[in-house]
C-alpha cells in the first residue's frame, strides 16, 4: 500500500509521462537516440593476444542492429563441462583441405549400353500385335559393359572438380553452423557468429545462461517478444555513456521494428516492406532510383507522411496540424 508521499510522487510522474494528442513522439525518440550515438566510437577487445571475438560498439554496432545484420552477431554460452573449440567452430572439408588434385590416370569412363530388349518391354510399349522381336538365346538377358580409358582433357578435369566440389565441400566436420571463432574461459564460451537453435540443442549447454546479441537469431528460436527484448537490451548497451535519456525512446524504436510480428529493418528495404510512398523512400537513400520508378509506373499517391509534406511544402499531420479547421464565413 502506498503512503501519501509515494502517491503524490506517482501522480507527478504519471502527469509528466502524458503525451499531448498529435505530438510526434517518433521525431523526439530519433533525436534522443541520435544525439549520444555521435559521441561513441568503434571499440573491440582482445584476449591474451587472440582476436577470436570482436565486439562492435557505437555507430557500426547501431547500424548492424537497425539493419538486422546477422554477420556481426556474437553469443555467450554457459557450459556444464569442459569444452574445446571443435565443439562450436563450424568446419567443412575446404577448411582443412590444402589442395585437391584430379588424377586423370585413374579416371575411367564406364559405358553401359542395352543391346537387347525383352519381349515384355516391347509389348508394354507397342502391344503384342504391333511388333515382333526375335531374341537370340546367346544374348538374351544380357547387358554389354565396355570400359574405356578417359581421354586427357581439361574439360573432363574441370567437370570432375566441380562434381567433387558440390558433393564433398559441404560436408560438415565439426561445430555449429554460423559460429566462426570462439574464446573459452572456464565454462563460459564467447563466440563470433550465433546459432541459438543449434547451440541450445547441445546437452552440455546451460540453456538458462546462454544468450545471443542477434535479434534475428533469437526471433528464429524464441519468437518476436524475445527478439524485442534483445533489441531493447542491445540498443541500451550501445547508447550507454555519460548522456542520459529516457528508456521509452528505445522501447518505442523496438516496438516500431517488431510491430509486424517480425523484425523490419530501419532502412530502405524496411520502408519498402512497410509500404511507404515513393517520396518517403526517395528522402532516405536512393533518391533518383525511387523517383524514376514512380515516374515509369505513373504512380499517384496521396500526401500522408511527414516526409511527403515536407518535400512538397504542405502542412504535416502532426501537432496542431493533425486537426482540420473549419472557418465559419457567416
Automatic annotation (TrEMBL):
Q: Name one GO molecular function term.
A: DNA binding
The UniProt record lists the EC number as 2.7.7.6
Q: Which residues form the RNA polymerase Rpb1 domain?
A: 18-274
Q: Which Pfam families is this protein grouped with? A: RNA_pol_Rpb1_5
| Taxonomic superkingdom | Eukaryota
Q: What GO terms fall under cellular component here?
A: RNA polymerase IV complex
Q: Which InterPro entries match?
A: DNA-dir_RpoC_beta_prime, RNA_pol_Rpb1_5
- The name under which this protein is listed is DNA-directed RNA polymerase
Q: Which organism is it from?
A: Physcomitrium patens
